[in-house]
Amino acid sequence: MGSPSTINTTDSVEMKNPIEGLNKLFESRIRLGVMSILMVNEWVDFISLREYLEITDGNLASHLKALETNGFIEIKKQFVGRKPKTSYRKTPAGKQAFSEHLGALEHLIKKKS
Asked: Is the pTM of this model over 0.85?
């Protein structure tokens, strides 16, 4: 998967294509939701993500894998007592990509108003 173009939200240069800075990976509402949660929390466990987003284990797992493959999230596996616990957090690359995506959305909204 090629990396989509992004914009620097501090640039004053007008984009020719208003959707150019959007990151295709965040088109999914689930990945958008996961990254939104991770932007405001240091670590979030799988069960909390699943319950908050109200989706199945398999659906969440596939979206988490896509974010991990692109280097946007980090995974920590541990045991709490005898139970396995998997937690996730955003990586610096994930934080930057998501921030740029939000900046592109804001730019698009402001351009249309």
From this structure: no
Q: Which amino acid is at 14?
A: E
Where is pLDDT greater, at 14 or 104? 104
Q: Phi, psi (5° rounding) for residue 50?
A: -60, -45
Q: How far apart are CA 64 and CA 38, in angstroms?
A: 12
Encoded tokens for 3: 């990396």
Q: 44 to each of 27, 28, 75, 76, 113, how far by Cα in Å?
A: 21, 19, 10, 10, 36
- How would you list the strands of the sheet with 73-80, edge to edge? 44-45, 83-90, 73-80
Tokens of 32: 């958008």
**From CA 72, how far away is CA 83, in angstroms rounded?**
26
Which CATH topology does 24-112 take? Arc Repressor Mutant, subunit A (1.10.10)
For the chain, give every domain's residue range: 24-112
More confident call, 30 vs 19: 30
